[in-house]
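Field notebook, page 345. I keep forgetting to write these up properly, so this time I am using the form the group agreed on. The chain and the ligand, NAP, are recorded exactly as supplied. Prediction of the bound pose follows.
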Amino acid sequence: MTKLKCIITLVLCTALASCGANDSGSVSTPDHTTAEVSATAVTSAKTEVEVIFDETTESQQETDNSGYPEFDFDTKTVTLNSGYEMPILGIGCFSLSDEEAENSVYWALSDGYRLIDTARIYGNEEAVGRGIQRAIDEGIVTREEIFVTTKMWTSDYDDGEAAVQASLDRLGLDYIDLMILHHSQPENDVQAYQAMEKAVSEGKLRSIGLSNYYETEDFDRLVNATSIKPALLKNETHPYHQSKEMQSHIAQYGTVLESWFPLGGRGNTQTLFDDPTIPAIAEAHGKTSAQIILRWRLQAGNIAIPGSSNPDHIQENCEIFDFELSADEMTQLTAIDKNERFADY
Ligand SMILES: NC(=O)c1ccc[n+]([C@@H]2O[C@H](COP(=O)([O-])OP(=O)(O)OC[C@H]3O[C@@H](n4cnc5c(N)ncnc54)[C@H](OP(=O)(O)O)[C@@H]3O)[C@@H](O)[C@H]2O)c1
């Protein structure tokens, strides 16, 4: 399919040097409290967010263009269609043991991350809750300053209300910032989504969304049967599976795309790190391949949640706010898309 490439240029007041624990800045949260974020303002910067739109009708392009949420590289957040601000970089907790999850969450919050991604099926929601509590107890963050995402597993879809409450209990929270359905399941995902809508009205969930909807028709099926537009779609997205068509499609709903497996997932990272295009760009910026991939995801308008149990990697992955990929580098990275997934689920 022919594509039309649009470059949306965001003029930023500041660029952020790093997310080291000693730096600080502030973000206005949806309830108008002030959230401290780790950031050092260093200089004026211009950052380009590249979005590829399908070449359909002109009006469709305009709708898509205007609807896709814009990333703010100053505050490191995006405003969701629910009105809440969400950090654009977070820590992922898939396949982490309880001990690893607790430590990774604690280290990430200490490094300045404010977004945490877990799921009922990961079996580590309680450990994630402990990592959050540790950081709160030590005065590193407050509850209002962080954004917690969890996912409802498919076997819970028949009783979504109980699933929401169970995740709240395991996390030790009285609200969840974002809950998403983990997979498309046409026989009962509408029912599960409606349970999440009810939880929004009760204040248990702030935003709701979807994961693993790869066909535009499937995404529309769910949207057309429910009331609240998904704030976010989380799909496998990385240099070899860039999801450009889906990103263009969901723009009309104001839905933002989040990237799982941003680095390819465990066992696949080296494949991406060794792609000739990536190390060349990394060398030019004095950065690692991981940092180039993550920065590229953000500039392409995708929230990234790299997973790690290694404190050095966790710190490295958030040091991506002190440089910018050029339009040419973005184009080079866009060109290595193979439309191939690593996972088969
Ligand atoms: N919705 C879904 O269906 C779904 C599915 C999968 C994942 N997810 C979410 O997405 C998150 C990210 O996916 P993922 O964790 O599976 O894969 P990933 O982030 O693409 O890759 C994780 C792998 O990268 C390594 N790594 C991380 N930072 C690195 C660095 N700077 N240098 C070298 N290696 C590095 C990690 O090893 P170390 O531990 O040694 O750092 C680990 O092996 C998950 O944690 C989860 O929250 C969602």
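OBSERVATIONS:
- The first helix runs from residue 58 to 67.
- Residues 92-94, 117, 182, 211-212, 234, 260-266, 269, 290, 305-310, 313, 316-317 surround NAP (CB under 6 Å).
FOLLOW-UP: compare against the apo run.
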